[in-house]
């Protein structure tokens, strides 16, 4: 939008804090290459347009805003003379590639001194070459530092997750190896015992009944219900007495296996009724091998299922085979992240899931939301020092999907609460935190998903709340990296 041309007064420029140290020749050049325009209430420039001019307020009131989702969020409103906005970093080069990161409007007739971005860059480099070099170093240095530390943080997080995942995978894998080795021995023993039974004085009918009992035994193992320690001990004593009464040596070694399989005295009585006393012990020990092999195969199945679940959780967490933007179930994302972080959270932290399963799937970037969950869960676990309760809650609030992480740690002090989302701000000891986790989380939630991230904290009750829209919103032009927001101080 263009304003109405007005005369440029060198003396008026000299009264602004931005130009008060310039001499008459420099002020004359500014007036000669720049211009003064009067804008009626309304927009001056829009976010995303090419950043062609540097604006300095002479009189009036300006409002600076940023586009977040479908709303314009006011960032700054001021009437202070000399505040500036627009192509403020044109000195970094290639001003034609820069775009306004925010929108500027005025609420009353307002005059601006306007300097083309090319002229602003030229005079700054000519008049203040050392300052330009320092500013360039500060700007690019800060960008490089943030990029490097961000990469380092992601690598540290990846290393921690990898260590935790390796530990979680090692346990079921080792259990499966042990069970497989034991199973090999039990199968060999069963073959040997089967040969002895076949060579023994068993009637054909008795063998058929014994095989039928073996089949029912295998089925019973699959249906066995866990017993309390006291119930298991009482049943082991009863089975041990039965073995002693029937002359079976070492019955105390057999009893725990039979109890674990859910077998009792009635089952043993069926076996005893099938064979005579001379062959009872051989039959019981053969069936004991059946029970052991079934239990070992259950253990192998449980272990390999656990490995498969961990691999699926890692796949879900990393979103390796999925589109970056999709309709996703936040509960699946939360569960996969909690499983991935289980080793890092530690056994001292109790996890409580308070999910509203009726919530709909939402359009999102699942891989990036997993990064948000990771940062918030890791911070909560760190704040609690390995002891406490972490509650993960989902609900529908304000027509948005809420994901809340509540911990029982000491809380975030009020004096720093407003800074925790700032880049590089951290309360962790040197070397333990980069201060980018919450900043990254903020940008993912607010800038990428058009949601909101906030914190409520008091000792013993800290809640980080993520609000996400239920439906997709139209995206705006991507923000450039060579603009800035209005400044009010010289």
From TrEMBL:
Database matches in Pfam families: cNMP_binding (PF00027), HATPase_c (PF02518)
Residue ranges of domain Histidine kinase in the record: 300-472
Annotated GO MF terms: ATP binding
Span of domain Cyclic nucleotide-binding: 18-124
Keywords: ATP-binding, Kinase, Nucleotide-binding, Transferase, Two-component regulatory system
Known catalytic reactions: ATP + protein L-histidine = ADP + protein N-phospho-L-histidine
Xref: SUPFAM superfamilies: ATPase domain of HSP90 chaperone/DNA topoisomerase II/histidine kinase (SSF55874), cAMP-binding domain-like (SSF51206)
InterPro entries, per the entry: cNMP-bd_dom, cNMP-bd_dom_sf, HATPase_C_sf, HATPase_dom, His_kinase_dom, RmlC-like_jellyroll, Sig_transdc_His_kin-like_C
ATP-binding keyword on record: yes
EC number of this enzyme: 2.7.13.3
Name listed for the protein in its UniProt record: histidine kinase
